[in-house]
Specification:
Elements (H helix, E strand, L loop, with lengths): L6 E5 L5 H14 L4 E6 L7 H9 L3 E6 L8 H19 L5 E5 L1 H6 L5 H9 L6 E5 L5 H6 L2 E4 L20
Parallel strand pairs: 1-5, 1-6, 2-3, 2-4, 4-5
């Protein structure tokens, strides 16, 4: 098994960035790698992937580090900082082959996390860890530093017709 990890960024306005990261996680678990995901801006027990992670434990750990109705309040900054600390600890622990920072790009865009902090985390990545950063509005310096950047582009979406997010499909 290849032990050289890269840094991947999944960004863009389209649906499927978190799903792509979870697809990578599922494939990795099938090959015996443990996966750690921090979900920025997502509250506990609000997304299907959090419930599904229980079935994959202990190979998949998901830590939601947001709250319902998140914004740009001091509490949201504190939660984002804690999320980064969780991600850094997991990344450096030697226990996980993949660490996913779900919606980190949005957290940076909203000012909850400084771009420099994410760049420092990227620089600290051990050689054998795959680091994945998801979310719209990836910072240009994060894009520049990454090894692989994929942009998800919306062509057409049922949200445009007023269809609300559906349990089990969008969350």
């Amino acid at each position: 098994m290849n032990t050289t990890g890269s840094i991947q960024v999944y960004t863009g306005e389209g649906k499927g960035k978190t799903t792509a990261a979870l697809g990578l996680a599922w494939r990795a678990i099938g090959r015996g790698l443990k996966v750690f995901m921090v979900q920025f801006l997502k509250a506990p027990e609000t997304s299907g992937e959090q419930f599904a992670a229980e079935a994959f434990a202990p190979m998949l750990t998901i830590k939601p580090m947001g709250r319902k109705g998140f914004g740009c309040e001091p509490l949201d900054v504190i939660m984002a900082e804690r999320g980064l600390e969780e991600a850094r600890n997991a990344m450096l622990s030697g226990e996980y082959g993949i660490v996913i920072l779900d919606e980190i790009n949005i957290a940076v865009h909203l000012g909850l996390v400084e771009p420099q902090t994410v760049l420092e985390l990227m620089d600290a990545k051990p050689e054998n860890v795959e680091l994945v950063l998801t979310g719209r509005y990836a910072h240009p310096k994060v894009i520049e530093r990454a090894d692989c950047v994929l942009e998800v582009k919306k062509i057409k979406h049922h949200f445009d017709k007023g269809v609300e997010g559906r349990e089990g499909i969008e969350y």
